[in-house]
Protein 1
Amino acid sequence: MPFASAARAAGREFISNPVAPMFSPEIVATAVLNGLLTGAVYALVALGLTLVYGVLHIINFAHGALLTAAMFAVLVLKLWLGLDPYVAMVPLVPLFFIIGYALQRFVIGPASHGNDANILLVTLGLSILIENLLLAIFRSDTRTIDVPYAFMSIDLDFALLALPRVIAFGVSVVVAAALWALLALTDTGKAIRAVAKEKLGAALVGIDVAHVYAVTFGLGTACLAVAACLLMPTFYVSPRAGGAFVFVAFTIVVLGGMGSIPGALIGGLFIGVVESLSGLYFGESLGQIGIFAIFIAILLFRPTGLFGARA
Amino acid sequence: MAETSPLLAVTGLVAGYGGAPILRGIDLSVEPGEIVAVLGANGVGKTTLNKVLSGVLTPSAGEIRFDGERIDGAAAPAIVAAGLVHVPEGRKIFPDLDVHENLELGSYRRARANRAANLARVYDIFPRLAERRRQRAGTLSGGEQQMLAIGRGLMAEPKLLILDEPSLGLSPLLVEQMFTLIRRINTDGLTIMLVEQNVVQSLEIAGRAFVMENGRFVMAGAARDLAADPQLEKAYLGL
Ligand SMILES: Nc1ncnc2c1ncn2[C@@H]1O[C@H](COP(=O)(O)OP(=O)(O)OP(=O)(O)O)[C@@H](O)[C@H]1O
Ligand SMILES: [Mg+2]
């Protein structure tokens, strides 16, 4: 559903064929490449979800609505200030970090009273609130922005890749690497990993657990701001636009193992390719069937995911 | 010792978990440089006292002074920053982090500038940890985890180190080594409050001791005197 791909368009004439169509290696390779490009952005959305799950042990139901809000923020900055979506990362990533931090520190945390079921309901309530606010302000119309490079592409001889999506891939991989480095190398990152498994031990070395929770939530939300800036040059936004991504992201989180950062990255790329190939072979409208099938299969055969060790 | 001001002074401390109070009027002092043993049967409230002292549990009454400052009601990070470090019962190390990272986080709030020197010192005290510095802490043996928990506590350069049952679950030989070690770090200048079930060995290395029963101290005094007191066994066994 999310991206339209050149490869799928190229294969469209075969769709009515009831037998599985044969494609030239170039078309399949292009589909795989496009899948990787899409998958990297999926991975970014999944990273935020899996990070929050891994540390706070909750599924953040507001993730989709926050992504939508970030996409509208990109739209508004473009329409009002003429700000390019990529430049919009500069104000929006810190802003969404702060929004996420504040939501966890002053709304979700205090409202949950330490009860996970409450947290679930609070994030669900937040998502409804955000969606309806966006609906009230922007109506349910689908909107896009115009950027001069929207239809530029990179020619690889055998494949033509849309420039904005190549940029999205590059930035997503850099952000994932930066997040990994933060978690592995800095004191803040180590504190996040410490709190994930051992709250009391963390408090006893002087880690402010509520602060670390909020930082984690802020990082997850900041990932969404990056994703929104990468998506808007080629994608549309409506008050429900984020939902489609979060369904895919949730599949990735389950596939990669709940809470696993490398799992989210590799799972995202994998799901991107699956979507692209099943779009190629089964038709664009059925592109997500492959994802759904994988989701069910993981739940049946490997509920801990490919990288998940946790019970 | 009486003329120096105590490092830790607790008066009239009351605390619990919402129901009836567990600690029902605790008075305690720890002088700089000494080892104080806190003894008592299971479930009398020793760990609860440690939790209150380290700020993870808020007392409902009483006063705690550490290094001259009131710390009752202060949050755990502020208490660590002040130099009171609690190595908890059950170790509470970070299982997904490796040994080295666990130690690094020991200086998250305090003594961060001296991290490198303190890492070297902890590895010197516990060569076993140095051998395993890249091993995930969750896969360490029980004894190694206890060393890691103490090492992590030392990383903050504490003024007072509270050890909650450091010998729990260790083999007799390791218990012996653990007590030798505690005496050694005390001789190096560290003040220690030792909560233990190993009464005899604790009284051997402690200067003074307190015996808790039902959330109150029922005996207190020089460790040597307590060791010789027939009342001790009675109080300890709750007879
Ligand atoms: N989180 C808690 N909620 C409710 N009650 C608790 C909690 N933690 C401890 N208690 C109760 O408080 C009492 C004192 O427990 P505490 O852990 O302080 O004992 P202890 O003296 O350390 O015992 P042990 O020697 O077995 O470690 C016990 O009755 C225990 O059940
Ligand atoms: Mg205890």
Protein 2
Amino acid sequence: MPEKIIGQVQRVNGPVITVDNVTDASMMDLVYVGEDHLIGELVKLDGTSATVQVYEDTTGLCPFENVYGTSLPLSVELGPGLIGSIYDGIQRPLSRLREICGDTIAKGVVSKALDRTKKWEFTPVVAVSDTVHPGSVIGTVQETSRILHRILVPLTLGDLKDQFTVVSISDIAEYSVDETVCVVEDDEGERHSLTLMHSWSIRKPRKVKERKPLSIPLITGQRVIDMLFPLAKGGTVAIPGGFGTGKTMTQHAIASWCDADIIVYIGCGERGNEMTDVLREFPKLIDPYTGKSLMERTILIANTSNMPVSAREASIYTGITLAEYYRDQGYHVAVMADSTSRWAEALRELSGRMEEMPAEEGFPAYLPTRIAEFYERAGRMETLSAMEGSVSIIGAVSPPGGDFSEPVTQHTKRFVRCFWGLDRSLASSRHYPAISWLDSYSEYVDEVAPWWEQKGEGNWKSARQEIMNLLQKEVRLQQIVKLVGPDALPDSQNFILEVCSMFKTAFLQQNAFDDIDKYSSIEKQLGMLNVILTYWKVGSAAIEKGLPIVRVKRMKVTQEIARMRFSISDDNLEELDKITVRLERQISRLGEMYEA
Amino acid sequence: MKHNIEMNKIERSLLKGREYIGAQKIEGPLVYMRNTHAVGYGELVEVSDKDGKTRTGQVLDTSSDVVVVQLFEGTDGLSIPSTRMRFMGEPFNLPVSKGMLGRVMNGLGRPRDASSLPAGEDSMNINGLPINPTAREYPQDFIQTGVSVIDGLTTLIQGQKLPIFSGNGLPHNQLAAQIARQAKVLSQDSDFSIVFAAMGVKYDVARFFIDSFESSGVLDNVAFFLSLADDPSIERTITPRSALTLAEHLAFTHDKQVLVIMTDMTNYCESLREISTLRGEIPSRKGYPGYLYSNLAELYERSGKLLGHGGSITQLPILTMPNDDISHPIPDLTGYITEGQIVFDREMYSRGIYPPINGLPSLSRLMKDGIGDGMTRKDHPHLANQLFASYSHVKDVRNLASVIGEEELTTLDHQYLDFGAKFENEFVYQRFDENRSIEQTLDLGWEALKTLPAEELQRVSEDELKEFYGG
Ligand SMILES: Nc1ncnc2c1ncn2[C@@H]1O[C@H](COP(=O)(O)OP(=O)(O)OP(=O)(O)O)[C@@H](O)[C@H]1O
Ligand SMILES: [Mg+2]
């Protein structure tokens, strides 16, 4: 990389440094600071002075040390070998860093994101004299047993309208990522060598042909989500919640069981052990849709809370750029960002050190713009190569004191269309996932309803509505009970409380540590919902006719309903129908006794 | 001031350790110095006053004209003309050795008495370096503390960071001492080495711990880093760093199982706030600096286990919640970083329950992999879930009873009240010197559940009901 001195360090204030005597530099250039060549990004220019945010620990850095410019933006490497890797916030491969510098991360260590020694078998899909454009697929590489990596003409070469002619293309053969596999020529006769990899600036969204409607749900295997507050493929959702309410667990569960093709998991300013947990668990876990190891579809970005704060700011963009790259290959990608609040706080810290005027609670005034830009990068798209792909964003938010009125939660709410609010009191009574059925919402319900109809599950929306109505009624009844006790209510109303309480323990709660309960297929979810609605229907009809509620609660089958999430696995779903049958039979027998 | 770059390089190696006389400004623990050579960020500084008394500091901000240094032993007695300063050209390193066990040091890791410490086996940067997540080993070994509510419901795991959220006047020191005394990993026979860091607590508190360790005969296995209430407040910001540096040395060089007790984190955070305010930084909540989260994470993340090393660091930080408010920034940010929390409850304390731990807001995030068959007992995971679920219902019933009166409650509600009483008085309550085995703890849990009818126990399996609940 061509480097030239662009100035000298004038001041070091943690990760923010001021550079003097700046001659030739542009905004957002990647720079190397000092004799250790610490990686940084130029974020402000003022006369001959510049501000650089440094992505590594600046201890030992001195005034007057040189700053080297590259005239390139901060970029990521895109190519085969990303899947199964774990990177830090600026895409340094952590496993490789461990080989280089041991258990801890020393500063100034560099290592390329993609392994240059590994060979990949390339299979061409274009021929000499074919016409291609940026984003076209020129060939493929089997990256993991489940992911076929499509090699694209780099978007750095231009736009859809820019035409290139293939001058040469390799046969099936093994290449490392930086070897030329194809040469193309533009209309001015200039030739470009294409390799298996290219670079792309992390701050620039990758181009697509057009946005498509968000009409397909992202199935997560989590009942409260799929049945009550669905997320669409290409959609955005925020999960706010105080500490220990279950943001990370929810994200891990979705990363494990959702039906996306690729997962990009960004640990942004969170715990080291949580990343270790994923690294340890995912290779062992089997994806229910393909039967392959989950690690074969997962990329991890780990910038834990004790790693440099500016790299935390970058980690979100690194992650989303990798996601867009796989989307452009025609895949459905789900991005988990845990936690976007730590990213916002990194912005705040850097902004504070640059002595910018703060807006709310010390956050910079551009916070909402940055949040909006990030969530805008989600979507279901037609790619430049006319394939369909999507990026869904699932962002955790960690509000101080668990108070949702703070700036990050509030601004995020403006830009996402689905909201899974975690409730502290649910969490402390161990109702997990602690997603509140009263605070949460999904604007995708109507958009994904036709998908369910096409699957022959047309009553998904009406069943959902019926149970939501009961939950609303329960709130009002609970207020009465709090004042006068449950005995003051007639049995018919008490039964609403009973059904809701059953729905919560038997359906909404889902134990991520139970082998059966942790994942529910949509068939199981619909079956369970049906059992509960049957309980409501036949139970309330019998009570209407005079059957005492205690008799309904004491039925043996009621116990079976309460345990069905643990006892019935996806292989014996017919048990759910049997429960329904027994339920109807037992109630009608009891009912007859009372009618007589 | 235009320096030649080459000159600068030569200068740095030659000027290392050179002394400057006369400060530009002294404010609280901060000293501003002009016209120095190019000084590195975070560099170690030695400052002496007119009587030749030296103190240690660190560069907090450096630029071509002014250097800001924070002094850990305070600035009392320094004057502008007589302040002498030497920049050591290296970061703050602490000489560490196994011989520090059994010794009492100050926050900077220097002996508090006249005798000298054994020679360092190694010299380590007190800030440590971030652990590579790929080098971590996921902690999963159960530590039996002998305290039922912890072992049963918020199980401590070797390598975990599990803070105690307490309040003024609550018995957090007793509990920490009890845990330190009783902690045992059932599958190992090596004992814990203890590193104790005191920040801004009274001498009595330190004395209580010293006596407690002495009476259980483990004093030789404890290293104390004391920065007490009458020591300079800024020293508290360095104390946990010194302590953790030694802990890392013991755990990852000597393969020891280390338990780090840090008290009181609230004082630590207040010292940070002092410095931040002095420097005129933009505050976030309640005047605490915006980087408090990252700063605390730099401490709390220095725990765990590493692949290929036999040792571990388990952290037990103690903090007193201002006004018993769990949403105050200090407990709040701590809870966002640590792997759970043990929460004290003043109301339980006033009812005479020791340890006054409220199980519902308490949590151990690592217990999932450390309990159950082969680790504690096979019924443990479900039993814990059931106790949580039932106990949280007790709270609802008590609320209802306070509105409509106990006599209006149903039979089932009364059974819940009985369960609540039994749970608190027999399962949670225990003596300060009572060390229960995990079997005893779990059996007590089942005893309490027997006050409830079987159909209320939906978190446990039919088999477990048969085996432990009885017919
Ligand atoms: N679905 C679930 N099943 C079982 N336990 C759960 C579930 N969700 C959460 N928990 C429990 O709650 C604990 C905290 O969850 P989690 O770590 O996801 O919280 P968090 O919101 O990410 O907290 P923080 O903001 O501090 O990172 C977990 O360790 C686990 O014990
Ligand atoms: Mg989390």
